[in-house]
Specification:
Blueprint lengths: L2 H30 L2 H4 L3 H14 L1
């Protein structure tokens, strides 16, 4: 095998590891937080408050 084949297998392995990490993180986050917390717009509220202070 040549260098490019090794690089290709390495890239596929890295992609598989990244996908596995994303899956584990998704499951951990989903089991740790409720759906209400995950879909809340708290960041939007904080940004609106910050803009409100700039206007005054």
């Amino acid at each position: 095998m040549d260098l490019w084949s090794y690089l290709e297998y390495g890239a596929w392995g890295l992609a598989a590891l990244l996908g596995l990490h994303m899956l584990v993180d998704w499951l951990k986050t989903d089991s740790t937080f409720s759906e209400d917390v995950l879909t809340s717009s708290r960041e939007g509220e904080l940004e609106a408050m910050a803009e409100e202070h700039k206007v005054h």
